[in-house]
Design a protein that fits this description.
It contains six helices and four strands. The protein is α+β, with helices and mostly antiparallel strands. A two-stranded antiparallel ribbon has the order 1-2. It has a two-stranded antiparallel sheet with strand order 3-4. InterPro entries: SPP1-like_terminase, Terminase_Gp1_N_sf, Terminase_ssu.
């Protein structure tokens, strides 16, 4: 049976995730100043609390990292001219303008690479003599 976190343990874990400071997290969770350091260490060594912290950190990291689909969608929007950038005008004002041709061409190139649309062809020449003995051993000579 999987053990559930108490409300105080969950507050501790959530604060620890925010700050990375176990003692401070224990204080914020409501543990006393006298025992905060010891309790913090104990909590970090409890498998079910550690599992909760690891799971939450993985979710946070996953949300911050773009996946392949998101990258392809962005490159496609740049390629199609849907993305703009803010530039300063001569009068000190700012204006949104479409990305230039070089940016769109680079997006097309990168998108093509993600889809393996381009193949670098290389010709490699050479001789390789391989002999296989009756006992299954082989010898490669170049």
């Amino acid at each position: 049976m999987k053990k559930k976190l108490t409300a105080k343990q969950q507050r501790f874990a959530d604060e620890y995730i925010k700050t990375g400071n176990a003692t401070q997290a224990a204080l914020e969770a409501g543990y006393s100043k006298k025992t905060a350091g010891v309790i913090a260490n104990e909590n970090l060594n409890k498998p079910y609390i550690k599992e909760y912290i690891d799971k939450q950190l993985n979710l946070i990291h996953s949300a911050k990292i773009a996946d392949a689909k998101e990258i392809q969608e962005f490159l496609t929007s740049v390629l199609r001219g849907d993305e703009t950038e803010t530039v300063a005008t001569a009068k000190g004002l700012f204006s949104n303008v479409e990305l230039g041709g070089k940016d769109r061409l680079k997006a097309a190139e990168l998108l093509g690479k993600t889809k393996s649309m381009f193949t670098d062809r290389k010709q490699i020449d050479g001789d390789l003599n391989i002999s296989i003995d009756s006992d299954g051993e082989y010898d490669a000579n170049d």
